[in-house]
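Please fill in the sequence for the structure shown.

STRUCTURE ENCODING:
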């Protein structure tokens, strides 16, 4: 069977040429969301290819916003910079240094600078309704989002500040430590659920009575949703890892749809996340554990024709990662892919970079389950053959796959890092 897959790869794959994404662009027509994956959070080529493809989707296909696996408050600083709302941030590098939560390198890296500069230049001569936005859809910024809400109401509606502060007082004993809050909520039933739900309801009622300046309506709604969902996430993660994953991915989809609604009926979004979030979970062993993800949820909530998912992978190279959570990053060697994994089969077909479009003609060939490499921010190369491969039906998981045979680690910016 592996020989059949290798022969099929040779037949259906096309060479991937840097900066030439026409093979994928030819497949994009009526899609509302294009999901761009990555098999690690520390590979230079994945960022560069996604950047090139993103620019072409914006200029040639009319896509209107980018949503990434990052914190909303930090990404909003980038959004304010590229749209000209913020005149204090003088460069893309300074904007990216707002990403100070570990792992900072995911967005505070040299590879992102060129895209942020391009977005700012693209937006300069556009009216506000034609400008492209940049947003974070992850769930981890609980305290930062609460700070944003208080700051907003201090500025536009000071009469509500004290009631909002009282809602947040519930969190004060936990000293901005989510694990501490999670333990208390899970084992001692000491949580702030009722407070944040009431806060969310109050903010949603008030939002439309306030002026929408520089996307303030979207910003306050997103931070309110984030506060409620992050509280749920941290309350759950201690006792149920799978369900906390599901809460996180449902939250990301909720924010994607919130952003799309803000941009109107003709909005079109480009989503940057790890393969484990964008590649349909139903085509992996995640489904056996009751785990869902963004790719699955978007395919279920929209027609499959409106979603286009691109997976990324590599055979070998280097990567930025850490060997423990919250510990300093390092440049690691990515060993040759595990024998008979998807990445190994792609390499056996040829050692050139390549792209495959999965379609009705070849789907049955590539739907056999194979191991598919996934590298997280915590990585142990010497042990990767025992736990870094997700059994996947590739043609069901993705619409296309970009394979870079040998990859290199991205280049992190120096950032004053905070670990919360």
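FILLED IN BY: designer on duty
SEQUENCE:
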């Amino acid at each position: 069977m592996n020989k059949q897959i290798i022969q099929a790869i040779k037949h259906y794959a096309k060479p991937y040429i840097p900066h030439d994404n026409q093979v994928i662009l030819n497949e994009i027509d009526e899609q509302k969301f294009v999901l761009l994956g990555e098999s690690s959070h520390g590979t230079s080529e994945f960022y560069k290819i996604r950047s090139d493809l993103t620019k072409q989707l914006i200029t040639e296909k009319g896509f209107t916003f980018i949503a990434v696996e990052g914190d909303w408050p930090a990404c909003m600083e980038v959004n304010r910079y590229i749209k000209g709302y913020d005149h204090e941030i003088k460069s893309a590098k300074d904007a990216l240094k707002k990403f100070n939560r570990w792992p900072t390198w995911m967005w505070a890296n040299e590879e992102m600078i060129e895209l942020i500069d391009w977005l700012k230049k693209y937006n300069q001569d556009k009216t506000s309704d034609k400008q492209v936005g940049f947003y974070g859809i992850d769930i981890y910024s609980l305290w930062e989002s609460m700070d944003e809400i208080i700051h907003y109401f201090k500025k536009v509606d000071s009469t509500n500040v004290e009631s909002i502060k009282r809602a947040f007082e519930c969190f004060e004993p936990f000293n901005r430590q989510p694990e501490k809050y999670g333990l208390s909520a899970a084992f001692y039933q000491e949580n702030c659920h009722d407070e944040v739900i009431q806060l969310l309801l109050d903010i949603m009622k008030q939002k439309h009575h306030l002026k929408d300046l520089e996307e303030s309506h979207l910003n306050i709604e997103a931070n309110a949703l984030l506060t409620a969902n992050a509280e749920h996430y941290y309350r759950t993660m201690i006792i149920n890892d799978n369900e906390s994953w599901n809460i996180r991915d449902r939250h990301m989809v909720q924010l994607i749809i919130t952003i799309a609604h803000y941009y109107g009926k003709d909005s079109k979004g480009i989503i940057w996340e790890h393969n484990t979030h964008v590649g349909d979970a139903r085509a992996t062993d995640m489904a056996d554990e009751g785990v869902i993800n963004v790719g699955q949820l978007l395919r279920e909530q929209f027609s499959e024709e409106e979603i286009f998912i691109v997976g990324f992978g590599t055979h070998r190279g280097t990567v930025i990662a850490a060997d423990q959570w919250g510990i300093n990053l390092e440049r690691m060697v990515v060993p040759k892919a595990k024998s008979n994994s998807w990445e190994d089969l792609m390499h056996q077909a040829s050692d050139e970079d390549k792209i495959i479009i999965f379609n009705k003609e070849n789907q049955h060939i590539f739907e056999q389950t194979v191991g598919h490499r996934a590298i997280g921010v915590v990585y142990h190369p010497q042990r990767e053959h025992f736990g870094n491969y997700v059994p996947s039906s590739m043609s069901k998981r993705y619409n296309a796959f970009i394979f870079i045979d040998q990859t290199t680690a991205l280049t992190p910016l120096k950032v004053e890092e905070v670990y919360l």
